[in-house]
Structure formats: C-alpha cells, structure tokens
Amino acid sequence: MARALRASLMVTCLGDMFFPEVGVSTVRLLRRLGVSVDFPAGQTCCGQPLFNSGYHAGAARVGARMVELFKDAEHVVVPSGSCAFMLKHELPGLLRDRAAREAAERLAGRTYELSQFLVKVLRRTEFTASVAGRVTYHDSCHLLRGLHESAAPRAILRNLRGAELVELPAADECCGFGGSFSVRLPEVSSQILDKKLKNVESTGAACVVACDAGCLMQLGGGLRRRGSSVRAVHLAELIDGERR
After folding, report:
1. Residue 242's pLDDT band (cuts 50, 70, 90)
2. Cβ contacts of residue 209 below 8 Å, gap of 6+?
C-alpha cells in the first residue's frame, strides 16, 4: 500500500484569530482525500505584517521561527495566498544566516497555497459544494500577482457539483484590504471595496469565494454592513463536504 502524503497546516494569524473554521475545513478536506495532516504547535506568524510595514528585522526573526517549526514538514499547506507568498518568495531573502536562509529556501519549495496543493499535488478538481446555487470568485492580490495563480481555484470551482461558477467582473481588482492599508487609508479602502461589492452583487451569486482570510474579512464585513444576503466564503469551507 502506498504511503499517504503528509502535510503540515500553517493556519495563519487571521485564520487562528478570526477564521478558525477555515482551518477546520482544511484539515477535514485533506484528511478525507487521504492526506495525513498535522499541526505544528507554537506557530504564530509568517512575518508578513511586519515586512509590509517596513520592519524587516522583526519579520526575519518571526519568520525564522516558523522555518524552524516547519523544517521537518513533507508539505506545508497554507489556506492563504498572501502567507504562502511570504514563505515562498520573501522570507528566504530576509534571513542573513546562511543555514537559516537555506532552510527557508527548502521550505519554500515544499509550501503550497491550498488550491495549488489540491490541483497540482493531489490532482483533484472535483468536489461537492457546501453552498448550493451560484458562486463567484475574487482573486486575492498575493495569490494572483505574487504566486501567479488564477487557474487552480477556478479549476475547482468550474467542476463543483451543486453550484455554478459565475465570473466576477473585475475579479482581479483589489478588494481594498491590503493589510494595514485598510487601516492607514480607510477612505480609499472603502471606495475600492464599494466597487468590488457592487460587482459581487451584480453576479446574483449566493456567495463570493476567496482564498485569503484578509480578503474574506474585508468582503464579509462590507457585505454585512450593506445588509447583503451574499456570503463571503473561503474555498476550503465551500468544498469541505459539509452541506450548510
């Protein structure tokens, strides 16, 4: 019998604090697909908030700890395009110690955003939707522009049983979150979000799907303030097999 693939979940800060259900769905989904999933204790942050705010030394210290925690992982699965991008593309260059940098480079090669892991490693694209009806998809900035990934989540969404993918107008435009950008420039962020939500509602979708907790926070908050019936849902929640 072939040995099961092993994957370590990096749940991310926002996932841990605000979207624990995304982590639960990710683990449930992967285990149902035959993946042996573990959760390294003590994980905190990939360092991206510090990095984006210009505190690169602090980001390196936090990131180096994550590299140490995940050093023995066969695969690292991240339900966030932005955090996966940080681990894969920014963190290795921040570490000055040669051994730490080489460890970060090895980890980068084993790290996958969730939809990429499902499609490119597990070769799975067919799932049953937990939300029936129309769904639409928002491209998060780091997943699209950093990891250059738009095909994997769409391959899953186009094959969904029980749901229909409706393309979102201007799907590749930012939702206005941008990490601390939405805090530093709330007026600009709100205008960007307003345009995005109008496009979401124009699709007639029951939910807007994203692969990043930051986008879900921005989109979900905006939809609730508008009194909209549209839900913001992470891809993992949509395909974890539990009908809602």
Report:
1. low
2. 135, 136, 137, 138, 153, 157, 233, 234, 235, 238
